[in-house]
Amino acid sequence: MKAVSIKEPGGPEVLEWTEVPDPSPAAGEVVVDVVAGALNRADVMQRMGLYPVPAGASPYPGLEVSGRISAVGTGVTGWKVGDEVCALLTGGGYAQKVAVPAGQLLTVPQGIGLVEAAGLPEAVATVWSNIVMTAGLKEGETFLVHGGTGGVGTAAIQIAKAIGARVVTTVGSPEKAERARELGADLAIDHRTQDFTEHGPYDVILDVVGGSYLAGNVRSLAADGRLVVIGLQDGLEGRLNLADMVFKRLSVHGTTLRTRSAAQKAAIVAEVQEKVWPLIENGTVKLVVDRTVPMAEAAEAHRLMDTGRHIGKILLVND
């Protein structure tokens, strides 16, 4: 089969479409013939050498795919060859085939095409596991997500709105602000000209930026507020006011989906299938796709993501 390998840490040009060995399913796994995959910011970080591959994971980037099961390992029940699925991965999605633990498989939601389904697992599982399972966002609370027009942001706006929260987001242009409001954001803040801390307090913040945002996030949390940091685009360090933490009884969580155990991921996937898939099937939560790019041209897709001009997901499609 072919897959996208990373020749060395660097820019999009280090991605290479090359022949690699076919995967085979271990016990409890299936092999999926990949119809499509999707870009995530973690793929860019991995390409740059800033996101180490977990032990035992595929060295190829790609954290979500859709496709058809072509082989089933021992001990797998409930799935068979030919089933159309989408899947949350630990890696390896930029390929023609990938081995996946059966617990990380999802059905393709009714009304969603097989190609488009590739853009769902990572973003939706990231949002649900962090704002609901970790932060406990509730109806009537105020929720802030930074980067509201990325893959995670577009999902977060809609899921938080479905929960009944007041939704605020930061964006980088008037066009993106308008799109965020169309998705359900009550307030879209242009971070280039406005200070998000002036529009709080927030009960829950989902931060894909990190770095210098830490102090402002903590300062703008309400009493008993919860901050979940899932991205490091703005750097690895930030200042933290412990007085704010103590006197407002705040919680700060740093999480990543990729390094969780297979059992933890299976629990998240099961809850997503039960709680979020119905929202997608009834149209409450819509997948936002910026464009599709051939899998063999993953470098071009990365160049687009590096510009930050996309809205929603960028999909990679196999022939």
UniProtKB/TrEMBL annotation:
It comes from the Bacteria. Keywords: NADP, Oxidoreductase. CDD domains: p53_inducible_oxidoreductase. InterPro entries: ADH-like_N, ER, GroES-like_sf, NAD(P)-bd_dom_sf, Quinone_OxRdtase_PIG3. Residues 10-316 form the Enoyl reductase (ER) domain. GO terms for molecular function: NADPH binding; oxidoreductase activity, acting on NAD(P)H. This is Quinone oxidoreductase. It comes from Streptomyces albus (strain ATCC 21838 / DSM 41398 / FERM P-419 / JCM 4703 / NBRC 107858). The gene is salS.
